Amino acid sequence: MSTTAQRQRKNIGKRSGPAYVWSVVGVSTALLILAGLLMAEAGTSTAFLVTALALGVPPALQLGGTVVHLLLRAALPPSAALPQVPLAAPGPLVGSTCVVYPAIVYDREDVDALVDTMRAAARDSGPGFAGHIALVDFADGPTAELATDADLRAEVLTKLAAASATAPLSALFRTRRWNEADRVWMGWERKRGKLAEFAALVQDPAAETSFEGAAPALSGVRYVITIDVGNRLPNGGARRLVAAMAHPDNRAEADPGTGRITAGFGYVRPCHVPSPPRSLFEWSWQPYSAPTGQASFGQLLFGQDLFLGQGIFDVAAVRAALDGRIPDNTVLSHDKLEGMYARTACIAGAVVVEGNVEDYLAYRKRCHRWIRGDVHLLPWIAARGRRALPLMARWMLTNDLLAHLQPVAMAGLLVLAWLAAPPAQVGVYTAVVAGLLLQPLLVLPLMVLLGRSPRPPRMSRRAWLAGTLRLRGSLAWWLLRVEALRAPIWIVLLADRALFTLDATARATYRTFVSRRLILQWTSSVAAVRAVGRGAAARWRTMALASAVSVALAAGIGLENPPALVWSLPLLACWFAAPQLAYWASRPGRRIPFSSGP
Counting Cβ atoms within 10 Å, is residue 458 exposed (0-12), middle (13-18) or buried (19+)? Predict the structure, then answer.
């Protein structure tokens, strides 16, 4: 039965989703047309014009989205909080919820990280949960069983037993299966497979899975919370997720014909906030984060959000919604796709504190994996039949792909201007691209100034207006200073980011449409951080291509368009020295500016 609130939320998404998409597309198209007319008026060649407009698609969509967001920010009231049931401790709903920790264990350091995460989560969540269970895969291998498996398995169990003071901690281990596409023994479908097999055990303890041994007692479990290793869900966040998931207005409701969830939610996720930064680079990556989290723009506009891999899900609803929709060996970034089929909500107040990477090289590896994962989702944008997605879901996939290409587009526009623009226009084109790169410098303060907020009923309009302007002005000034410091870091790293983005996009496109192999290639974030060398030499080796490209560009510009060297050399010098900046900004212990907030 659909409640009034469910029907309202469903209708909001149906009405505003297409309108939002076409608004962004319309504004972005208008910006591209205006840019094309101005370039044609300036007498640029046809080849230059076409190339510039093609490269301009990602930044135009970003700018168009920004314009629409600013207008909606000024027009819409703050989003209503997702309803939650009153939750007594421990409560029967908590007792029907199991907390799981998907992990790949390579060595003893991974065991310690897993146990530390589970110990902290058990303490943060409080008593009464049906269980805290690690879902463990071991590293891929040439055989079904490796010599190190038994020792690592025993160490996991021993350390979990020693850590089970506040709550019983346990583990389920998966046997490797042969993956014909990748020609390796591995855990079936990695994290997606672990969660799918665990959900099958929840509904049927006799279900055939690749978990070893007998499963713990899971009768009565309705909900599963998943937390990644290295992250935390503090301040009762797990209980808030249960309270939101169990509310009747949020209960998942499926279309009987397609099985897709059309009202309510199969997933509820917390807000993601970064852990305190340990380096200048880590701070520059995510400098803005409310300690209590903030509902996303998607939640505000459409009553739903993206699932980002951590949160709670309704086992029965999600299994029904995903049945037969995602074939094996086709998806790396499965969380996003699953959340689109089963619908996702985000709640403020429950936050997952993510262990980010302090080092640029570790970020580079992580971002390469994210880009590959999103490119692998290309077939779903045009999918038909049972795998078809709603318009908003297709838009989000497309928008994410184009957002990844921003560094390529910006660097490409700069290089095009330096090599092919008439000498008198090089400075203008360089300034325009610089303005696009510095867009957040103006946009973020504007969003703060234009946002709507309710006036307390007992406060006079004059006092409320004065206080609001003072508070927002202070925050806008703080954001302006923060962006003025962080933007140069990302501009210096632009060439290297463009190059690894091209590499990730090319690899993933080839694997998706040609070889159909290595789609599930994966290195955990913990392993990626561990593999990074700490010295400056490691940066110069890894980022050598960006330095070499900057030298080649300087030589090419000197031959093709010498007057452009005045505009290009300062930035090319920065791109050449980017490895040294990456080393300097990634060093832990350096004073972090503005880290305490406004």
Answer: exposed
11 confidence band (pLDDT: 50, 70, 90): very low
Supply the DSSP symbol for 277: P
For residue 566, give both structure tokens: 């005045």
**CB count in 10 Å sphere of residue 521:** 16
pLDDT of amino acid 8: 43
**Six-digit token string for 391:** 């318009």
Start-to-end CA distance of the chain, whole Å, equals 46
The two counts, helices (H) then strands (E), for the chain are: 25, 11
Model-level pTM? Answer: 0.90
Average pLDDT score over the chain: 87
CB 344 within 8 A of CB 370: no
Q: Which of 162, 173, 49 is nearest to 105 (CA)?
A: 173
* Token pair recorded at residue 545: 């291509």
CA-nearest of 307, 315, 397 to 345 is 307
**For residue 41, with 0-12 CB atoms within 10 Å meaning exposed, 13-18 middle and 19 or more buried, which class applies?**
exposed
- How buried is residue 515: exposed, middle or buried, by Cβ count under 10 Å (0-12/13-18/19+)? exposed
The secondary structure of residue 303, as a DSSP letter, is S
**Computed from CA positions of residues 391, 397, 401, 402, in that sequence, does the dihedral angle turn out positive or negative?**
positive
Choose between 598 and 242: higher pLDDT: 242
114 CB neighbour count, 10 Å cutoff: 25
Q: Are 324 and 394 in contact (CB under 8 A)?
A: no
- For the stretch 463-504, pLDDT in tens is 777 777 777 787 788 888 888 888 999 999 999 999 999 999
- Which amino acid would we find at residue 493? L
Q: In this structure, are strands 177-179 and 131-138 parallel, antiparallel, or unpaired?
A: unpaired
Cis peptide before 276 (omega within 30 of 0): no
Q: What is the mean pLDDT of residues 440-462?
A: 74
Whether 295 contacts 347, CB under 8 Å = yes
Neighbours of 96 (CB within 10 A): 17
pLDDT tens profile 582-598: 999 988 866 777 665 56
Q: Which two tokens stand for residue 35?
A: 């840019």
Mean per-residue pLDDT for 120-140? 94
Question: Which pLDDT value is given to residue 226?
Answer: 97
- Residue type for 102, please? P
Cβ 210 vs Cβ 137: under 8 Å? no
